[in-house]
Fold:
Amino acid sequence: MCKFGAVENNVQITNSIAEGFSQITDMHPVPVDPDRLIAIAQKWGTPTYIYLEKLIRERCRKLINLFPDLPVSWLYAIKANDNPHLMDIIADEGLGFDTVSYEEVLLCRKIGAEPHHIFYTENNMTDAEMKGAVEQQVILNIGSLSRLEAFCDTFPGSSCSIRIKPDIGDGHHAKVDTGNEDSKFGIRLDQLSEAIAYAEKNRVAIKGIHAHIGSGIREPENLLYEINVLLDLARLFNDLEFINFGGGIPIPYRSDEPDFDLNRFAELASGRLKTFIGEEGRPIRFLFEPGRWIVGPAGILLTQINTVKDQGRKTFLGTDTGFNHLLRPALYDAYHGVVNISAPSDAETRVYDVAGNICESGDILATDREMSESKTGDYLAILDAGAYGMTMASLYNRRALPAEILITGKGFHKAIRQRKTPEQTVDEFLQDTGYSQKK
Ligand SMILES: Cc1ncc(COP(=O)(O)O)c(C=O)c1O
Structure:
C-alpha cells in the first residue's frame, strides 16, 4: 500500500467490477463497487476523495435538458468543488461557472473559461478585486448599494449585474440560509430605486438581477417564490438581459430522504417563466447556479480505521481523516452516510460513532450509526462528499490534505490531486512563513 506514495496517472484497476448503484451496504447505496474502492485505497492510500466522472456528466446533462424550450443556461458554483479536472468535465458539458471570489475568477480564467461564461458574485469585494474583475471582463454581480456606487463612480458607462436580498431564505442549516431578511447578502428591496437611479446617473447598465436564497433548499416553494420576486422586479430594469435565480438545489444525504423532484420543480418554474416571456416582449435569459447537486453525490471520502475504541457508553471508530477534510458534520451537524466497505455484506451490526484524528472533541464525522462490525484496518466510505468537502478542507493540526482520484468515464483511475507527505506539508509551511529550518 502506498500511504504517501507517488502519483501515477491512468492506471486501470484490473479487478474492478462494473459500476452501478446495486450495492447496498449498511442501507446506503454506494455508487461504486466496494471492491473497486478498496483497490483504490490500497493503491493510493487514504484519506482520499474519489469522484465519478460518469455521474457528474449525467447530472450536468439532466440539468441542461431540464428546460428544453426556454432560454435557460446553467452555471456551476465552483465553491462546491473547484478541482480543475472536475471543472473541465462540467465545462465540457456546456455549463459556465459561478464564482464568489476574485481567486475563483482567476482559476476559471486560467483553466480557459471565456469571461462571458464566468459570473462573479462579489461579497465585500475590495477596490482592487473590482478592478481585477473588470479587467478580466467577467460578469460582475454586485451585492451592496455602497459597492454599486463605487462601481458606478469608477466605471461610468459600463455594465453589471446586481444581487438582491429577496427576504426569503432557505437551506439545510441556518448558516447557509442566504436570502432571509437579516442576511448579509444582496441589496435591500427598498434600496433598489436608489440603486437604479445611481446607475442611470452614471450610465451604468444593470444587465442582470440575481438572488440566491440558500444552499440545500428544503422547500421548493421558497425557490419558486424567489423566482416570482425576481420576475416581478424585472420590469424596473430597462437594460435587463438576464435573471439569475441562484443555486441551492438539494441532494438527499440520508438513505430514507426523498430526492428533490427536479422535474416537478421545472414544470412549475417553466409555467412562470413562459408567462413572463410572453408578457415581457424583450429577450431575457434565465440562469441557475447550482453546485452541490452536480458534484455532491459523485464524491466519496475514503478513510481507514486506525483505532476501535470502547469508551463505555460509546464505541468510536477512529479514522485517518477528520473535520479538517470534511467540515460539514462539525460545522452544520450535517449527516453523511458511512459504509464499512471492508466488512462482509452479512456482517453483524453494531452502533458506532465515527471520529476523526483532529485534536478537538467536535471532530466527529457520524454519531450513533448502526454499521457492520468494524475493526482496525477496515476502510470506510463517507458518501455524498463531492460538494463542500475538499473546498472546505484545511491544514488544521498541520495535517496534509487528502489525495483526489477521478474514476474517469472510461473506467480509469486518475490522480487529480497528489497527497503531500507529512514532511512536504511541514516544509511548505516553514517555507511560506519564511522561517529557516534548523534541521
Ligand atoms: C451565491 C451562491 N451561488 C450558488 C451557490 C451554490 O449553492 P449550492 O451548492 O447549494 O447549489 C452558493 C452556495 O452557497 C452561493 O453562495
